[in-house]
Amino acid sequence: MCVDRSVMLFASFVILTSLILSYFVSPYWLLLTAFAGLNMMQASVTRVCPAATIFKKIGIKPGTIFK
To answer: 0.90 cut: is pTM over it?
Structure first.
């Protein structure tokens, strides 16, 4: 798996987890969903993603988007 797919998988996990927590625990967990969405927007414009940087440092092979 490359960094690009890892970032998409991680973002999906964060969004789904925050939706489940907002339903069962508190609606304030939707702020995490908003943060994930804003981070994806920022990464699409700047091509800089904190998660991609971390994934590269732990040894996941680079993809085509986040080099």
So the answer is: no
- Specify whether the CB–CB gap between 62 and 52 falls below 8 A: no
Residue with tokens 């939707």: 30
Cβ neighbours of residue 24 closer than 8 Å, sequence gap 6 or more = none
DSSP letter at 27 equals G
Averaged over successive runs of 10 residues, the pLDDT of the chain (67 residues) comes to: 92 97 98 96 91 94 81
> Is residue 2 left, alpha or beta, with left meaning phi > 0 and alpha meaning psi from -120 to 50?
beta
Backbone angles phi, psi at 36, to 5 degrees: -65, -40
Q: What CA–CA distance (Å, rounded) separates 39 from 19?
A: 17
* H/E stretch holding 24: helix 3-24
